[in-house]
Each structure stands twice: as structure tokens, then as C-alpha cells.
Amino acid sequence: MLYIDSVPIVPELQAAQIDFKEKRIPEGLNLLIVNLMPVKQDAERQLLRLLGLTSHAINVDFIYPVTHKSQSESFRHAKQYYKTFEAIKHRHYDGMIMTGAPVEHLDFSEVDYIEELREIHDWSNTHVKQRLFICWGAQFALNYRYGIHKRMFKEKLTGIYRYHILQAHPALFEIPEYIIPQSRGSYMDPGEVMEEADLDVITYSPYTGIDFISNRKQTDLFIGGHFEYEHDTLRNEFKRDRDKSEATAVKPKNYFRGDSLDLLPAHWISYAQQLFQNWSDMMYESRWSERDQTEDSLH
Q: Sign (positive/negative) of CA torsion 191, 194, 197, 201?
């Protein structure tokens, strides 16, 4: 069961038997989503579907970086329906998700809203219990928090990949194998990740490197891929890339049936649902109490 404030995605997800409340749910978990994806409506639907299938009632707030300069339809959508960081920073959240962003070709310092993201990250250190950073959001957080450098692949990593689970983690409870969609052109330096004492490498592939990283307290999760992707998301991305430049578009691996654009079964989706259930359980177990919030506000 979800409550979201004004974002017009509700009817589409109600058709998928996801329940919504018209008012904030007092007993619900409070979750903040920093949506940096280029097609914000798709990311909304993907994340809310997974959150709505968990056993928890969740109040969801979306924010966007107001310092970003864009005339895109997606940015206008965020400006119309999302909150600003300034409007929510007095609140405490049980969880925060920071999504990927289409800026991995840029140095972090070249991203026009990087200072705003750093401010959000610093604020979340004291106002958020559990954080989930996805794709470029994970790269940003690892760089800002630990100074780990971003490296570029020779060509875009796109497709469905299986990873070895190196150690147990509560987010992977009852997930027998780690299969996840990838869609990125960069990765975090694996040597620097493994040298950082506060980080645990949870999943690894000899072909694509590290994917799932956790801090030692298990309050911060960094995931390189996109568990939230729907069955046809990579195909839609490939078609958009091909329309821009057929010469440079990379066909997703382990995703299409033969040489066609017919899709293989989406084996990762059940694992994605379990991971979001597990992560929402982690939020619930560490959620803010009224006393916690009162004591924090006095410091």
C-alpha cells in the first residue's frame, strides 16, 4: 500500500492491483526518492510497482534537483509534480533511493546539480536510516563519500548478467542467484572499492566486475545495475540509442532471442521483488521513532 503526493502515476499502478491511500499513512514507512532518470515517469512506475508489491505501507515523496538546467518534458514533469529538497529537508525518512542519471560521460564536477546532490547526501546522513543508490547514483555516492574514481567502459554495458554472491546480506535474503539488468557506460574502480575498509563487495562477475556493494553497517547499498527495470526497458533504450546513432548503439546481451528483438524471459523480476521486500524490511527494522526524531532535532 502506497501514498504518493500528486504524482499522476496512480491509475496505471492501480490496474496492477497496487493499493493507494489518498492521505498520508501515519503508521507507514517514509521514503524519499531522488529521481534523476531521463524519463522520470518510467522510473516512477518501475520503483512504485516494486514498492507497492511489498508487505509494508509506504509514504513516498519524490524530489528533483532544482539547480539542473533542462527544457525536457521529463524535467517539466518533475518541476510540476515533485517536491524540492528545501520543502522536505525538515523531515526524517526511513529510506532514500537515489536513481541513476544520464551524466556518466561527465566528470562529477561537470554535473550542474552536483552541489545540490552533495547537500542532499550530507543531510541524509542524519535524516535517513537506509539508503539505496542505483547506477550513477551509486557512483556519485561512492565518489563523494569515499573518493572512489569512476572509469569508462570501452562500450556501453547493456544486457542481463549473472553475478556471484560473495557473502550474505539481508537485502539478498531468499535470493538464490543474482541476475540483474545493466545499462551503463562506466564503473567504479574495483581496486579502490576493495581497499576501502568500510565497504563490502557483495556480488562480482569476472566479465563485468563488481555490482552490489554495502557499507559495513548495512545502511547504505550501492547497486550498479537496475533491478527496477521492466521486461522491455532495455529494448526501449536500445531502440532510442539506435535512432540516435545506429553505428554506436550497443545491442543488449543475454536479452534478445537470437538475432531478433524478441525478449527472453525476465528472470530477474522475481528477484527484484524479493530485494525490494527485503530492503523495505530493513527500513522497517531501523525506522525512526518519534523519540529519535525529537532527539535529533535538538542537536
A: positive
pLDDT tens digits along 216-263: 999 999 999 999 999 999 999 999 999 999 989 999 999 999 999 999
- Comparing CA positions, the residue from 61, 55, 36, 54 lying closest to residue 127 is 61
Distance of alpha carbon 193 from alpha carbon 197, whole angstroms: 9
Grid cell of 59 as nine digits: 509514504
Give the E-state strand segments of the chain in sequence order.
2-4, 29-34, 58-63, 93-98, 128-134, 150-165, 178-188, 199-201, 203-205, 209-210, 212-215, 220-223
- Residue 255, C-beta contacts closer than 8 angstroms, at least 6 positions apart: 159, 160, 181, 234, 235, 263, 264
Active-site positions read 135, 226, 228
Has this prediction a pTM greater than 0.90?
yes
Which DSSP letter does residue 287 get? P
